[in-house]
């Protein structure tokens, strides 16, 4: 029988609210029980030990829908070991479930790369594949190679879906382009999330995409027209529609705090998902990197294209996003947990296994100190970062 771990005394964030002095019991890879107070293990011969987490927070493991790499390694163009290096880096920062995001590239290359990522998804190393490009607008290309962009032809969309062997989770499209709405319908038919992003769509065109089945806004506010009083654009459409979950990059560079507050106010905590949009430099450091075929300079933790100076993803990790949301943005901890764990888990259709601390779910959890700095990470019952407590 697998040893039992009892984590006790923490402020535990459960789906029903925060419990002071609560406990979580882990047996093997799963959560066996949660309790509003200390759990006794008397008579349990296989107990590996009780971890006293008084003065700490215990929250679900983080779930990242949109991530291009980390630890000096790329998900967008690296080999399997590169991907695993990036995954390991983000696990050290609390991300226990991660979707690997590709960037715009040659269609045949993307299909081959998707095959490799699909093998890692089959092994459980990643939770699936997100295709960000090539079916995006040249007007809002951001850090994507304009020469490789193309209209979203449903036949080509289907080629990438097939190449992912059932592990395509999401595709970002500029749905106003020719073939955009048909591609959204195709994605929905195959159980793939259609995300509106890198788009120059009008308000009306965005509503048409949502009516066709799009359910995610790729990094809301970024790589789309700004909100205008006569031309409300995609931001308004995506914020106001209850069918849409909005991604937010909470690194202090991509969004002004007021924009983040606006999103939470209008979408509510049930429709926000924090993402990193991380590239290779996340958890690694400043320097020069490649994002797909484009060269990126990272200085003071901000990634920009060498040519053009566009922001090129982020160096964010989700533990930093969590801490900033609570300490700078002053969001309730429960709202942050929803945005960083529960909501993305639900979008991925994995909320029966991850995203909250409940009996029967995977023992994926994060320990934070009273200043919301990460001190422990458990994934499937094993410590990735074991808490070093005084």
Automatic annotation (TrEMBL):
GO MF, one example: N-acetylglucosamine-6-phosphate deacetylase activity
Chain ranges of the Amidohydrolase-related domain: 58-384
EC number from the UniProt entry: 3.5.1.25
Keyword Metal-binding: yes
Alphabetical keyword list: Carbohydrate metabolism, Hydrolase, Metal-binding
Superkingdom field: Bacteria
EC top class named in words: hydrolase
Family statement: Belongs to the metallo-dependent hydrolases superfamily. NagA family.
Name of the protein in its database record: N-acetylglucosamine-6-phosphate deacetylase
Gene behind the chain: nagA
């Amino acid at each position: 029988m697998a040893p039992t771990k009892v984590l006790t005394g923490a402020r535990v964030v459960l789906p029903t609210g925060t419990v002071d002095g609560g406990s979580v019991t882990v047996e093997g890879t799963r959560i066996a029980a949660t309790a509003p107070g200390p759990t006794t293990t008397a008579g349990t011969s296989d107990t590996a030990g009780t971890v006293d987490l008084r003065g700490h927070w215990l929250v679900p493991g983080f779930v990242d829908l949109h991530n291009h790499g980390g630890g000096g390694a790329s998900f967008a163009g690296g080999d399997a070991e590169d991907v695993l290096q990036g995954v390991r880096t983000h696990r050290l920062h609390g991300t226990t479930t991660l979707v690997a995001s590709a960037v715009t590239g040659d269609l045949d290359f993307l299909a081959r790369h998707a095959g490799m990522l699909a093998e890692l998804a089959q092994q459980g190393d990643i939770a699936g594949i997100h295709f960000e490009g090539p079916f995006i607008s040249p007007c809002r290309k951001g850090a994507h190679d304009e020469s490789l962009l193309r209209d979203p032809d449903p036949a080509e969309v289907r080629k990438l879906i097939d190449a992912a062997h059932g592990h395509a989770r999401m595709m970002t499209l500029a749905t106003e382009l020719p073939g955009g709405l048909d591609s959204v319908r195709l994605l929905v038919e195959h159980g793939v999330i259609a995300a509106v992003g890198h788009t120059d769509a009008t308000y009306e065109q965005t509503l048409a995409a949502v009516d066709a089945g799009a359910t995610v806004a790729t990094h809301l506010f970024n790589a789309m027209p700004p909100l205008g009083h006569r031309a409300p654009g995609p931001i308004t459409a995506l914020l106001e529609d209850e069918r849409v979950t909005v991604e937010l990059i909470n690194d202090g560079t991509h969004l002004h705090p007021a924009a983040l507050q606006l999103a939470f106010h209008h979408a509510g905590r049930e429709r926000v998902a924090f993402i990193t949009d991380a590239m290779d430099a996340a958890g690694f450091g400043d320097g020069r990197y490649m994002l797909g075929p484009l060269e990126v300079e990272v200085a003071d933790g901000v990634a920009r294209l060498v040519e053009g100076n566009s922001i090129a993803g982020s160096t964010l990790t989700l533990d930093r996003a969590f801490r900033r949301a609570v300490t700078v943005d002053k969001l309730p901890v429960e709202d942050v947990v929803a945005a960083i764990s529960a909501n993305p888990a639900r979008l991925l259709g994995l909320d029966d296994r991850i995203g909250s601390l409940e009996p029967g779910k995977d023992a994926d959890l994060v320990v934070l100190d009273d200043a919301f700095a990460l001190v422990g990470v458990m994934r499937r019952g094993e410590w990735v970062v074991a808490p070093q407590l005084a």
